[in-house]
Amino acid sequence: MVVELDDDLWFPDPHIGDPDGLFAIGGDLSIDRLLLAYSHGIFPWFSFRDSVEPYWYCPMRRFVIFPSEIHVSHSMRTLMRKERYHLSMNEDFEHVIANCSQLRIEEEGAWLGPDIIEAYTELHKQGFATSVEVWDSEDIDPATGRERLVGGLYGVTLGCSFFGESMFSLVPNASKLALVYLAKFMEEKGGVLIDCQFETPHLKSMGGRYIDYDEYMALLRD
Q1: Which of 6, 19, 67, 158 could in theory staple to 186 by disulfide, Cβ–Cβ 3.0 to 4.6 A?
Q2: Predicted confidence (pLDDT) at residue 142 exceeds the cutoff of 90
Q3: What pLDDT score does 104 carry?
Q4: Nearest by Cα to 200 from 45, 23, 64, 56
Q5: Global model pTM greater than 0.90
Q6: What residues have CB less than 8 Å from 143, skipping those under 6 apart?
Q7: Is the dihedral of CA 26, 28, 29, 35 positive or negative?
Q8: Average pLDDT in the chain
Q9: Where are the beta strands (DSSP E) in the chain?
């Protein structure tokens, strides 16, 4: 069952949704609605070329990474020891989300369009969205005089949880470096979980696994 939202700030019970997690259409991408959504494990995902209204998803099986369970392969450890790349947090959110968008913008069903970029950039300005940047110390951008941004990720941060939205790599393994950095940071700071939204081979290889929605919500509430 999929419910049509109105201008009021609410969501129906996500347990009513379709098997893929779609349970509501409409509403807006306001800060208040997004914060309400993520606090219940809900996120918008829709083709911006095909719909003017957000589609809201809340899968009952959640693919997550627990920070302490992040898997760092031997090849990744070797790459990290070379110290060619350095990482940062919240130094260049706008370019991270722009790169995530541009790498997929021509794909059918692309979702990271202007409205999403505007909404999550505002979330970042208000302290509810975070970026991780990967910089190449051996590639200096002549226009800026600084290291080139070669990878990263961004997502929503609420309490001790991180809700991943997108990542990008311009060189091999850059997004993996960003995810390892995020997980280690969260582990040090008492972070609870990284919500990956959907399973991918990339995320599964790094320790992602499924938990059910009720367990997921208990972790968010704690």
Answers
A1: 67
A2: no
A3: 80
A4: 64
A5: yes
A6: none
A7: negative
A8: 95
A9: 3-5, 22-26, 43-44, 55-57, 61-65, 85-89, 129-140, 147-158, 161-169, 193-195, 209-212
Q: What angle do CA 64, 67, 69 make, to 5 degrees?
A: 85
* Of 59, 25, 29, 103, nearest in space to 196 by CA: 59
Among the ranges given (79-93, 138-152, 157-171, 206-220), the one the predictor scored with the smallest mean pLDDT: 138-152
pLDDT tens track for 34-60: 999 999 999 999 998 888 899 999 999
Q: Both tokens of residue 75?
A: 């090849």
* Tokens at 128, concatenated: 């509810």
Cβ-based neighbours of 67, under 8 Å, separated by 6 or more:
183, 184, 186, 187, 191, 192, 193, 194
**Residue scoring higher pLDDT (56 or 202):** 56
C-alpha pair distances (Å), 170 with each of 15, 148, 149: 38, 10, 8
| Terminal Cα distance for the chain, rounded | 29
Strands 55-57 and 3-5 come out as unpaired
CB neighbours of residue 216 within 10 Å: 22
SS3 52: coil
85: helix, strand or coil: strand
